Amino acid sequence: MSTLTVNGISKSFYGVKAVQGVSFEIGPGQIMALIGPNGAGKSTCFNMLNGQLRPDTGSVTFGGHDITGSAPSEIWRHGVGRTFQIAQTFGSMTVRENVQMVLHSVNRRLWGLWSPLMAGYAAEADELLEAVGMQEQADRACCVLAYGDVKRLELAMALANRPRLLLMDEPTAGMAPKERNELMSLTARLVTERGLSVLFTEHSVDVVFEHANTVVVMSRGQLIARGTPEEIREDPLVQEVYLGSGAFLETSGIGQ
Ligand SMILES: Nc1ncnc2c1ncn2[C@@H]1O[C@H](COP(=O)(O)OP(=O)(O)OP(=O)(O)O)[C@@H](O)[C@H]1O
């Protein structure tokens, strides 16, 4: 059974058809990359899944719930976690406090006003920090962390809601190649250990071909291909769309 079903979603801005009739499904254990040239419609598509934009047409269902046009907080409550292109953490708080804050929010949802009276979720926070290899840094202020560590903390915060799907917007933007690989290997391990699915947008083809198990390709608002990294590399339409994007062709092996 699929976790997320996207059925024919479209979005236009003042006559510009940013996304046109895009459909795909993500099942448990999938690490799906959404790629395409600049202006292909990736961000618009992504933002219709996380609730930042309401589709003009089509539907999005998650775990059997229709979440089309729902607010981001509502989608989060259904079990969709998110990480951002620029990590969203509180610099003046410690690493542990950042996770505790999300746990408070999650538990307020479950227990209502009783939540603030409960323990500070320190043990739960430490368990999540351990899962992402950040426990030794639990007492440090976020603002002194290296960028790769902030991204790992962001992952722990996203996991606090026990999501079944993680939406990651350009997770490795601004990172060095070694850090990129570490973050995506960690993500892949979490997918296996926790039975998650991941959908991520990404400009780095190295990351996509090394870490995604499924790739969907958009061009001019439409979904033009879906397959394994190997299938996408060989796809003539994908090769054509990327023609002229030398870096992509060279690194990915597309067009060779
Ligand atoms: N808020 C907006 N208002 C008007 N046009 C928009 C808006 N958002 C996106 N567009 C247009 O929709 C099309 C798709 O844009 P989108 O940002 O989704 O593409 P993208 O694949 O994410 O591109 P990039 O890789 O450059 O971020 C583009 O033509 C863009 O100019």
TrEMBL record:
Domain ABC transporter: 4-245
Gene3D superfamilies: P-loop containing nucleotide triphosphate hydrolases
UniProt superkingdom: Bacteria
InterPro entries in the cross-refs: AAA+_ATPase, ABC_AA/LPS_Transport, ABC_transporter-like_ATP-bd, BCA_ABC_TP_C, P-loop_NTPase
Alphabetical UniProt keywords: ATP-binding, Nucleotide-binding, Transport
Any GO molecular function: ATP binding
PANTHER family attached to this UniProt entry: AMINO ACID ABC TRANSPORTER ATP-BINDING PROTEIN (PTHR45772:SF7), CONSERVED COMPONENT OF ABC TRANSPORTER FOR NATURAL AMINO ACIDS-RELATED (PTHR45772)
Protein name as it appears in the record: Branched-chain amino acid transport system ATP-binding protein
Classification lineage: Bacteria, Pseudomonadati, Pseudomonadota, Alphaproteobacteria, Hyphomicrobiales
